[in-house]
Design goal:
Family: Belongs to the HisA/HisF family.
Number of helices: 10
CATH class: Alpha Beta
Largest sheet: 8 strands, parallel, barrel
Number of domains: 1
Catalytic activity: 1-(5-phospho-beta-D-ribosyl)-5-[(5-phospho-beta-D-ribosylamino)methylideneamino]imidazole-4-carboxamide = 5-[(5-phospho-1-deoxy-D-ribulos-1-ylimino)methylamino]-1-(5-phospho-beta-D-ribosyl)imidazole-4-carboxamide
Enzyme class: isomerase
CATH topology: TIM Barrel
Number of strands: 12
CATH architecture: Alpha-Beta Barrel
Strand order of the largest sheet: 1-4-5-6-7-10-11-12
Distance between the termini: 9 Å
Structural class: alpha/beta
GO biological process, one term: L-histidine biosynthetic process
Pfam families: His_biosynth
Length: 238
């Protein structure tokens, strides 16, 4: 299972939100490039980079930070937040992201994302399945869509997607454990999909449980910043 540390950006700084609420924001570091370098020095190979300013603005805002991290490290970056157009997608890939996560756009404009999947392939275009309860959340997690998580995944598997970053919005940033049962159900229902768990990963026991369940990856954010998971604990997975 891939270990994927997370950096969320607001005003160029490394932050975490609680349950996706911008009013419950904690700033951990003013230098996200240094944070990324520490992850790389610890042996991590991936990075999940979310432009929260971009998610609210509807277009990438922190491209300079993405480019700086891509230049300073060899981390394999998947980027999300505000990627709504072909121009934005090109900007993010040109800035150094190797993968792009389509979240809200994948709900609102499925033909666009399907065209990206056909052009760039499922190894480049990831699908962000941000959910709360049974439904997909959109617009920086502010709005509930009519789509259920299962219907959303079914539709995109049929369109050629393979990797789904599944974030339980109700758990994200709360250090209360991941939605293991939901992930186990998804793996059984969609055995060909690659699921990446996001939200609530708190302890090394959580990581072990996700690996045992068959998850393709686990995104770890606040637990690394708060120290409930320390980089040396992750060495068996790296």
């Amino acid at each position: 299972m891939e270990i994927i540390p997370a950096i969320d950006l607001v005003n160029g700084q490394c932050v975490r939100l609680s349950a996706g609420d911008f009013a419950r924001q904690t700033t951990y570091d003013s230098d996200p490039v240094a944070v990324a370098q520490r992850f790389a020095d610890a042996g991590m190979r991936r990075l999940h980079l979310v432009d929260l300013d971009g998610a609210r603005a509807g277009h990438p805002v922190n491209l300079a930070v993405l480019e700086a991290i891509a230049t300073a490290t060899t981390l394999d970056i998947d980027a999300g937040g505000g990627i709504q157009t072909q121009a934005s997608l090109t900007q993010v890939l040109d800035a150094g992201a190797r993968h792009v996560t389509a979240g809200s756009l994948a709900v609102r404009e499925q033909p666009t994302v399907e065209a990206w999947l056909a052009r760039y392939g499922s190894d480049t275009i990831f699908i962000g399945a941000d959910f709360k309860g049974e439904h997909i959340m959109i617009n920086a997690w502010a709005d509930k869509s009519a789509l259920t998580l299962v219907d959303f995944i079914t539709s995109y598997l049929g369109a050629g997607a393979s990797t789904f970053i599944c974030t339980d919005v109700s758990k994200d940033g709360l250090l209360q454990g991941p939605s293991l049962e939901i992930y186990q159900t998804l793996i059984k229902q969609f055995p060909t999909a690659r699921f990446v768990a996001s939200g609530g990963v708190t302890t090394i026991a959580d990581v072990e449980a996700l690996a045992a369940a068959g998850m393709h990856g686990a995104i770890i954010g606040k637990a690394l910043y708060e120290g409930t998971i320390k980089p040396p604990d992750l060495k068996p997975f790296l």
